[in-house]
Amino acid sequence: MGLFTLEHSKTAYRADFALYGVAVISLTALLVLDGPAAQRLESALWVAAGLAGWSLVEYLLHRFVLHGLQPFQRWHTEHHERPTALICAPTMLSAALISTLVFLPALLLGGLWCACAVTLGVVSGYLAYAITHHATHHWRANGTWLRERKRWHALHHHQRWPGCYGVTSGLWDHVLGTSQRAPRRQALTPP
Q1: Whole-angstrom distance, CA of residue 75 vs CA of residue 147
Q2: Does residue 82 form part of some domain?
Q3: What predicted TM-score, i.e. pTM, was given to this entire model?
């Protein structure tokens, strides 16, 4: 399978987790060991901003790109049709997008330490998303949080009404009104 295929071999699929895990560890080490001590609080705030930003991006990408724009919608439909297949964004694509749309603008606007911190937040969010999405399709739910995430994601996959786009959290579905899966039934009132 090539570098830009949607369905991955087990090795390529696992390499995605490894690459982003190494990126999180490396960026954390760089910020803690080499970052200016005077900017540690500021860096932590930028990491938090990147993580919060990822939360919204996760929702928006899933709702409007994967369920709204071709060819992404067609590719995502393949995942819905075969939810246990190892289908995900090619690592080269996700890494290029994060580098181009997160790291470079943050570097230009805020400097190296800001760029590293924001990118750490986004990459941490992306890794959490990837692990959570994998877990919803391949792991047993032993805890309450994962059980709820699996239920939420199953609603997204198995219902006909749009919604439940958040994978790591239902926050944006609640805020933006896509947490309801079906129209509410009219209450029956006696004549």
Answers
A1: 27
A2: yes
A3: 0.85
